[in-house]
């Protein structure tokens, strides 16, 4: 699903109350880290990722890496926090993506 402006605004509003669940640290970006993100997003569809102070990666580098190596879409980048969205494969967890599709 390619997100439009209204859909991104809706997702940003939904993510406002969320706390970051994953972090990018000194180990940097790895395929295993992206696999963990994908697994978590299959159950949640929307989450925040924090880039720690000791990380060598910038927010733009993390955004590019995630989008190039997975189906995850970066909805928003604010400072060192990214909001990520991915449609869940299991229909049981597709509550948010169904609402996004109607917008």
Automatic annotation (TrEMBL):
Q: Name one GO molecular function term.
A: RNA binding
Which InterPro entries did the record assign? RNA-binding_CRM, RNA-binding_domain, RNA-binding_YhbY, YhbY-like_sf
Q: What is the lineage of its organism?
A: Bacteria, Bacillati, Bacillota, Bacilli, Lactobacillales
**Which controlled-vocabulary keywords does the entry list?**
RNA-binding
Q: Could you identify this protein by its name?
A: CRM domain-containing protein
Q: Which PROSITE patterns match?
A: CRM
Asked if the record carries the keyword RNA-binding, the reply is yes
Residues of the CRM domain? 1-97
Among SUPFAM superfamilies, the record links this protein to: YhbY-like
Organism of derivation: Limosilactobacillus fermentum (strain NBRC 3956 / LMG 18251) (Lactobacillus fermentum)
